[in-house]
Each structure stands twice: as structure tokens, then as C-alpha cells.
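Example with several molecule types.
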Amino acid sequence: MLVFLIRRIAQSAIVVAIMSVLVFTGIFAIGNPIDVLISPEADELERAAAIARLGLDRPLHEQFFAFAGNALSGDLGISFVHGVPAVELVLERFPATLELALLAMIIAVLIGIPLGIWAGLRPDSPAGRIIMAGSILGFSLPTFWVGMLLIMAFAVSLGWLPASGRGETVDVFGIPFSFLTADGLKHMLLPALNLALFKVSLVIRLARAGTREVALQDYVRFARAKGLSPARIVGVHILKNIMIPVVTVLGLEFGSVIAFSVVTESVFAWPGMGKLLIDSILLLDRPVVVAYLLVTVLLFIVINLVVDVLYSLLDPRIRLGGAKA
Amino acid sequence: MRQDPVLEVEDLHTHFFTRGGVARAVDGVSFSLHRGEILGLVGESGSGKSVTGMSILGLIDPPGRIVSGAVLYRGENLVAAGEKRLRQLRGNRIAMIFQDPMMTLNPVLSVETQMVETVLAHDRVSREQARERAREALARVGIPSPDERLAAYPHQFSGGMRQRVAIAIALLHQPDVIIADEPTTALDVTIQAQILFEVQKLCRETGTALVWITHDLAVVSGLADRVAVMYAGRIVETGTTVEVIDHARHPYTHGLLGSVPSRNKRGEPLAQIPGMTPSLLRLPEGCAFQPRCPRATAACLALPPLSGGDHGWRCFHPQEAAA
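Resulting C-alpha cells for the full complex:
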């Protein structure tokens, strides 16, 4: 386990280093932030001063090493636009996105797994076919469109749920969270549903495919021959076997929900990281984009680590640690 | 004096309603089993022997269905019984062991979980007591240091050890009947011999009756009290092991016996039954073995009845009883 962790951390460090180079040069290539930041009326002198102040007059590699040096001490630069440290800006928005993503994943698991197992156990029943047809819709409908429909239906026509913002929040260790208040939950529900739709479909298909395969295995027949109840066979013998692919994909999806919930956050005006990213790209606010992507990379690394640990809990045949006996 | 049989199968028909037509996997099988008796159910792949085993426990899934006939456990007809009653009996009074020990244990659950759940499915005992019974069962089937092995997962066992675990699970409730579906086919011969020995011993000790499904006549001749030979869903010959193995009357039984390599003389080509097992969807009329049978005549286009007596065969032209 310790060997596994050390190896993992070394791998992660390399990934972070490569990512930072890519992101830094990538943003540099997109355009010059000065064109956006400074008003067209500014004279040459003001321009030169601004460029020097932001360090943009130096060659790219110098800029990068200055950035990398600062980054090692946790300083990812100061936002060109907002004038505050970029990391702070990103982390400030992080809890909003995190709670939204978590709720979406919970919805995906709670709806997707039971429906998927049901469809897998009775693939030819009408209910099974309806579930599968529904999952195709979930895959193919564009997120922004579904988001707008949800707003139309539940916020505008029925007036049951609010359409934008985080609602009332409660501070936990100084971080505001919405899920702790009824109002906040109401505000979260629509965007979370919107975000969950695709994942629900994905989980349904994974769970169904897994169930169809596992249900035919001899150990399921043996479990029946032992006289176990159907609830125990499905809930323990089948469920535990289909969770491995589900956990893999959910891990990846969780990362991407947090990192790229841009569309949903825009539609529902949810003040999360995704919205910050879009705004920062439009303004070529390089430190914020870089900080955002690095936080995202770290997030993916952590999630992958958690997924690997979950594997070993789900499947005794998988052992953590590189050294094979 | 003979007691009443623990298990009687009467004219059982299990058919599979597939797109290609109706496959009559089990087509009128009858046998009975007494306490402590070992019945060898012999046949080639597709002869319906496994389906017969599954039918007894009501484990036939659609498109398959028990069409008619009865399975009497101590006089109670299980074909008419509800799912709940069947569940009470499965693993409790009638247990089953499957062919491939690599596949019968759930790979992600510990042996302890899989044994304890079997105990708890039928008896209201504490988890501790259930665990203790699991430990005893493992020790009984010859698994060393059962305490440690309980915590292990199936992949940490060899094939033979896994089959012992499966047998231990079948023995947990000291069932009246165990249906063993080719449990030694996937094992090495030495392991096979050990398992056969253990099973025989355990059945003698506990009075458990055994239906041993196999294609291996050698196994059956050493283990079973009685033998039933199946072909295309029907029993074609039945009797005591000595009667069937040494005084076979049905040409198919003869063919099977002739196909065992050790019974052939060295250097001679191996005897074989010509042709192939017929598709269950297109069974020949009358005696299903008739197209492959060296003794077949026009009379064989009608289905021969199972001749009476303890040693019975389903043939119009049986081989003469060997001297």
C-alpha cells in the first residue's frame, strides 16, 4: 500500500509538471491579454507599463520559470482581471461546483443502478425496454437544451423550483454550502438533475450490461441453489460484481463533472468553477485559467486514487502495490 | 424392508421453447432415490442430465419450463410448489453442486460470507453460530486450518479446494439429497479421486442421497449404487451399477462402454458410436438412438417402452445378457 502511494505521488508530480507546461504555452498561444485588458484609448506609455507590470514583456520561457518557481510555493499568480491570487479565486468557487457535482453523482447512482439492474434482469420486459429507450434520450439530448426545458417546466410554468443562483448558504469552516439549507437544496435540484441526466443514462447502461453478464454466471445459479432470497442475490451477489465498471466510469465522470460543468453552470447561473473558467478564457485571464486547470488535474489524480482504493475494496483479486509476487 | 424414497421423479418433461422450435431437453424421465443411495445419471453433453438436475430444484429459467410430470420430495410435489417453498428446500433439504468450481463461488465475496449466508438463509441462528457451522463444514470436507480459510476469497483456493468449499456449502444443512452436476469433471484425476472418496464417505455417514450427474462411466462404476443412462432426454437404461456396467442391454450403453479407452485393446482403433447426438429440436421418430444404432430395424420407428423390473432398458432389440 505504501509503495503504491509513493509511486502514485511520483507519477502525479510528473503529470502536473507536464500539464503546467502545456497549459501555460497553450494559453500564451491563444492571444495577448493586454488587448483585452487595456482600453483602446490607452496610450503607448500606459500599455508598456501594464505589460511590464504583468511581466508580459519577458520571453516565454522566463515567464514560465518565474511562474513555475512561484507555483512550487503555492502561488499561481494574480488574476489579471480581478487583481487577487488566482488560486483563491478558483478555490472560492470550488465548493459550489463540488456540492453540485456530488448531488448529481448521487442522483446518477440512486436512479441509474436500480434501473440498470432492473433492465438487466428483465431485458425483454416492457419496463426494461422503456428504461433503455429513456437512457438513449439521456445520452443524446444536449445538456443546455434539457437545462432550458427544466427551467421552462419547473421554474417558469410550475413555479416549483428556482431557476438560478445558489440560494441560502450555510458556512462550514468558513466555506459556504447550499446543501445544508432547504432553500439551497431547492436551488441545487434543477442544475443537479440537469447535470445528472447524462450520468444516469451512462450508469443505467453499465449496470444493465453488467447485470446481464453476471446474472448468467454459475455463482448466481449456485446462490439460487443455496436457497438465498432474490433480494440477497441481486443486492449482494450481483451488485458487488457490477460495481467495478460502474465505479471506474463514475470516477472519471465525477472529475469531468467538477471540471467541466460549464454548460449547466451557465444555464442556471450557478456561481461555480465552470462559470469562472468561461469568463476567464474570454478575458484571457491566464493565471486563473492555469490555476483552474492545475486544480482540475490534482482533482483527477485524487479521484483516480480513490477509485483504485475502491477497486481493492470491491474486488479481492485486485491488490494495490506494484510488486507482484 | 425398503423405506419410502426421499426423492421420486415421475415422467418429468422439461422443454425449452426457443425460436428454432421446442427443445425437449427432458422427455419423460423417472427415477427414485432412497436415503443414502447414490444414483449415477450418465449421458453425453446435451442428453438432458443437467436439465433434469436443475428441474428437481425448480431452477429452470425461461424459455425453459417443466411441462409435465412430478418431482416428489418425501411425497410433496415440487413442480406444483411455490417459489417460496422451493427456496426453503433449496440448499437446505436438497442441495446442489455444480461442475466448474472456478465459477460456482462468487469471486468478490469471502468464503465466510458465502457460507454464513447459506446457514442464515434457512436457520435462525446468530452470525457467530453460523460461522461456527461453516468452520465445521470446512473441516469435514478436509480443508486444513478452516479458521484462516474462512476469511479467504475463492481466488486464493485451488480448483479442488474450491470444489470442497462448494461441497461444504452443500453439506451445511445436512440435506436429504445432493444433486452433483459433474462436480469432478474440471479437476485432476488425483483430486477427483479424493473428492469422490470424501463424498462417498460423507453420504454414508449422514445418510444423504446423491444424484451424481456425469458423462464419465468410470466415475460412476466406482461410486454409484444405481445407474441411469440418458440419451436425448430419456432414460434408456437403468439398474444397479453392476447390472448396467457389466450386463448392459441397451446398444447405446454398450456404445458408451466401448468408447472408454481403457476397455479397448492396445493397438486396436478406439471403438466409437457412429454419428452424432441428435439435435433436440429435430429428434428422430421413435427411439432417438435408432439412426446411430447397429441393431435398429423398422420397429424402432416406434418409441420402445422402458422394460420392467429393477434392470430396465428402452429397446426392442437389446443386447443379449453377457455371460
